[in-house]
Amino acid sequence: FPLSPFTFHDKLAKLIKNKKKIALKSIFIDQLELPSRIYNCLKMSNIYTLLDLLNNSQEDLMKIEHFRSEDVKQILG
Predict the structure, then answer these.
(1) How far is the CA of 34 from the CAs of 6, 27, 55, 77, in angstroms?
(2) Distance (Å, rounded) from C-alpha 23 to C-alpha 37?
(3) 3-state class (DSSP) for residue 41
(4) How far apart are CA 15 and CA 40, in angstroms?
(5) In 10 A of CB 23, how many CB atoms?
(6) pTM of this prediction?
(7) 8 A C-beta contact, residue 47 and residue 53
(8) I need a surface site. Which of 2, 15, 40, 62 has the fewest CB within 10 A?
(9) Which domains does the chain have, with CATH numbers?
(10) Is the Cβ–Cβ distance between 28 and 49 less than 8 Å?
(11) How many CA atoms lie within 13 A of 46 on its CB side?
C-alpha cells in the first residue's frame, strides 16, 4: 500500500523537526560567545545547549540567580 501524501508529509515534517532538535542539541552555549557572567549563570542553571536555552521562557530565565532583564534582552538579540 502506498503511503498517502498526508502521512508522508507528517513523517517528513516530524523528521525535519527532529533534525532541528538534534542540531540545537549540538550547539553548546560556550559557542555562542556570550559574556562570561551570562554564560556562568546559564551553566549554573543546567543550561548547556541552545536547545536547553530555547526550552526556557523569558520568565524562566528571569528566575535565574544573578540574571538581569538586560541579560535576557542580550540573549534574545
Answers:
(1) 42, 13, 18, 11
(2) 25
(3) helix
(4) 33
(5) 11
(6) 0.73
(7) yes
(8) 2
(9) 5-76 (1.10.150.20)
(10) yes
(11) 2
Q: At residue 20, does pLDDT exceed 80?
A: yes
Rounded to an integer, what distance in angstroms lies between the CA atom of residue 72 and that of residue 76? Answer: 6
Q: Which cell goes with 62?
A: 528571569
| 27 grid coordinates | 550547539
CA nearest to 30, candidates 58, 46, 53, 49: 49
> How deeply is 5 buried, as exposed, middle or buried, from its count of CB atoms within 10 A (0-12, 13-18, 19+)?
exposed
Residue 47 CA to residue 37 CA, distance in Å, equals 14
* 66 within 8 A of 41, measured Cβ to Cβ: yes
Q: What amino acid occupies position 61?
A: L
